[in-house]
Design brief:
single chain, elongated, about 170 residues
């Protein structure tokens, strides 16, 4: 009876170790998962850059405001009617400024929506992979460093490709 108990205990112990090893390997982030995550991050950063560029164009090319200097004046005075009167802000300028601010305020929600779409798309990344990589990054700074390096590598490759397009 003791042998049977000891044998059962050893088998249970071996099974537990094997199960633990499987769980640990399932939690390990693969190179492919890190690459997918890095690619998603680059797409989001490019999207933000695109939105920021649109915002800058809106400010620079706005005929009512006449460029960035007037926009900055209005921004500094915004919300204070006394200061707006002091800088002689017209109703048209206020409307133009408010329109640009509305666009700026919407960027955060648009970026969040875009990023969520990428995360939920299993072909791009997938929610499970996103969560797995985020957990690994929190637990192990070297994973974050690897992903940061992958992001830099992807951006560098994109820059080289854009450079190739210019010379063609």
């Amino acid at each position: 009876m003791k042998r049977l108990f000891l044998l059962a205990l050893l088998m249970f112990g071996a099974f537990s170790v094997q199960t633990f090893a499987q769980e640990e390997s399932e939690d390990e982030v693969t190179e492919e998962e890190m690459m997918k995550y890095a690619s998603m991050e680059v797409k989001v950063q490019n999207y933000i850059q695109e939105k920021q560029s649109t915002m800058e164009t809106m400010i620079k090319e706005n005929e009512t405001l006449g460029g960035g200097a007037r926009y900055n004046e209005l921004k500094a005075a915004w919300g204070d009617e006394e200061k707006l009167a002091e800088i002689e802000a017209t109703e048209e300028e206020k409307e133009a400024f408010a329109e640009i601010q509305e666009y700026i305020d919407s960027i955060g929600d648009e970026v969040k929506e875009y990023m969520t779409g990428l995360i939920m798309d299993a072909e791009v990344l997938g929610a499970a992979t996103y969560n797995k990589v985020r957990r690994a990054m929190s637990a192990d700074p070297s994973v974050k460093e690897q992903i940061d390096n992958l992001i830099a590598e992807i951006k560098e490759n994109e820059g080289e490709e854009e450079g190739d397009d210019v010379t063609d």
